[in-house]
Hints:
The complex is a heterodimer. Chain A has helices at about 50-55, 80-85, 100-110, 115-125, 140-150, 170-185, 195-205, 220-225, 240-245, 270-280, 290-300, and strands spanning about 5, 10-20, 25-35, 40-45, 65-70, 75, 85-90, 160, 190-195, 205-210, 215-220, 230-235, 250-255, 260-265, 280-290. Chain A is an alpha/beta fold.
Amino acid sequence: MAASHNGLTTAIRTVGLTKDYGDGHGVFDLDLQVHAGEVFGFIGPNGAGKTTTIRLLMDLVRADRGIATIYGLDSRRDSVAVKRITGYLPGELPSFAGFTGGQLLELFANLRGGVALERMQTLADRFQLDLSRRYRDYSHGNKQKLLLVQAFMHGPRLVVLDEPTLGLDPVMQREFRQLIRETASTGATVFLSSHVLSEVEKACDRIAIIAQGRLRRVGTMSELRQLSVHNVEATIDSSLEPSRLVAIPGVSDVQVENHHVRCRVRGRVAPLLEVLNAAGVVEIDSQEMSLEELFLEQYSQPLAS
Amino acid sequence: MSSIRSLSLRNLAAAWLWSHRVAAATWSVGVGAIMVTFAYSFRGMVADFAGGAAGFATAAQATADAMRPISGPAFRLDTYAGYVTYHNVGIWSLLLAVYASIQGGLALRGLEERGVLQLFVASSSRLRVMTARVVAFTSAMAMIAVGTGVGMGIGLVAAGEPGWASGFVLAAEVTLTACVFYALALVVAQLTRSARAAAGTVSAFAIASYLISNTYDQLGPAAGLRFVSPFFYLLQSRFVMVSGHSADLIATAVLLVALIAPIVLAWRLFAGRDIDAVAVRLPFSIPKSDWTLRRRRASVRSLWIYFLRDQWLSLAAWVGGVFVLEFVYLAIFPQVRDVWETSDIVKVLISMAGGETLLAGYLSFMLGFVAIVAAAFSVVQAGRWLGDHAAGRDELYVAGAPVSRLRLSLERWLALVVGLVIISMGAVAGLVAGAATAGETPEVGGVVRTAADVVLIGVAVGGVSAALAIWLRSGLALGILGALLALSYLLTVLRPLFKWPEWTAHISVFDAFGYPYTGVPAPLGLAVLAVLAIGGAVVAGTVAVRRSAV
């Protein structure tokens, strides 16, 4: 039975989940909680541990330590039961010779059982997928779409998608986002990985950032936006000691040359404005870093030992 | 300043030659060693035979005549050169041709299927890529020719016969013939959508043309077909090791033309077609596969059925192969019976096979070949399992079907057993059809025992295959399996010749198979096969469940 916390059902829970491939590769002490009905984005650069985490959740690789549960089911002990309620899109597309797209979907529908063929066809139509073509003749994008249909066709309670929009054109990406919103509206949970923040930003309720195998931050989009950073440039008509700026909480990267000031502010800007005002600010320009830049900056920070 | 350089022919050819290294070494050392071993065994046989070499040749000629469809014509069996040419060179040339056909299919189409050909042609010219593939393969074949040539040369010296260098000539002729099939497969692969289809088509042609070249004098009006068989031209130089014979230069020239012309044609087709497309479109259109909700195909609801359906064409080839094998053996029986009744060697074979009558002994001995086919099928299945893993299909079976890792192993196991049963039935059908043609009546109990034992040895080899494949997860598993089977078979052949202790025979799975047609195999042999089958399955299942990654 799924765990419940603060009235929210937990769809995915990991505690101390670790898979060490050596040389710093893998996933380490991952504590994560995804609520039922959430669209949860898991972002990080290449090699951050996104696919390893997903494969651990799906019991495709085994953890060195820690646990992972899906709706209260142990991902390893109840492996098949977990997969029955889950739709999965692998990060690497497998090859299948000799099958048309339709035959391949039908194969997995029959093996799984309980799949309404009408839903399969509807999903395929939605992605403008020609099921009469051979799978191996599909483009990368069409293979991706076919496997997306495979992941959604049985109406799963949880959908786990590894880089789902890879190879999809913008129209299909929009269709995909619409599909996951519809899926979430039925109470199902969507867990998707990506290395493109803007893509996750449009689709997800909450986001986790992983880098070097460790979870760096989890939050809603609005919470992450509170972490926003402004690059401030100002011209003042008097002198200003850089130490006065450095002393302001959240201010960093201070440069003062003649009457020109540059710095970076994380969080509230009011204290900085007070100091600049006292120094006789003549002109001020402030630019908020995009989440993409913020995201990149996050990765550039070394891990605390 | 940096410069962008395209991939050089030398680098490409060297890289691809490196990829052939294991196969080239296996062929060279394996066949070379067999050739040397036969020299010593031949000396032993002849020394012990009443009447010496001449007596041996007279006795062996009858067997050789009967085996002509399989081994080709026999000549000067009183010499090592003649004997090894009859006994080994024919089958070796056929196996090498099939191997070359597979490699020809894979050469370009295989790269396309893996999606890497476009990377190479983006960094180099198509001509360079194709040339590098051809150069790498032909270089590997040259290495095989040298390795086996050394083996045959040493064999000639060990047997005290002249012309040690002729071994190299024969090896060169055999590898040249194999290269012709490589070139043919290269052409066919331009016309098919899969490497497997090209390899299968040319392999089938290799087998058919081999049989035709060995039996053309019995084909009546169809005898002219021999001229389209590359093996016919090899046949003209086949006895080059026998003193007084030399290579037929005209036949060799024909083989060279048969090698170069398809390569040129393949190049023309490859240069003019799209990547991932066929070179020639059919003049008519085949209706597209009609997957709609209203017109659904018969459903596959189990993975084991899917595994079998996915390989129905190759399974049909396996069944067809054993059918033809057993049919031919039975069909030619009346023609050789009279000769065989006077042959000392046949009497030895019959006593080994335990038959009370000539037919029983003959059948018992010949059905042993089905055991080899069953064992080979199991090793090929291991190759498919490795392919499923490498292509990422395992992951989707486990997560998308969904099935447990243990269930996946069991489904594969079931597919293997059913495949073996189908092959066994194919052999029985060939046996029955051949017997009807020959006017003979096989013993029902013997046929049933053999069919069951064929499945058992196949499952036993399958057990070892499954354990090795899932443990090693690489082509090395197939190499080890092939070597184990080859050694296992050679043990049964060489032990009596070298008079090795009897216990050594029990190491071989083919000894464990026994002669089921003429009696229930020894309990120890059955136990060994059962332990390998069950033990291998248990090990494979356990490793599958416990290993870290699917």
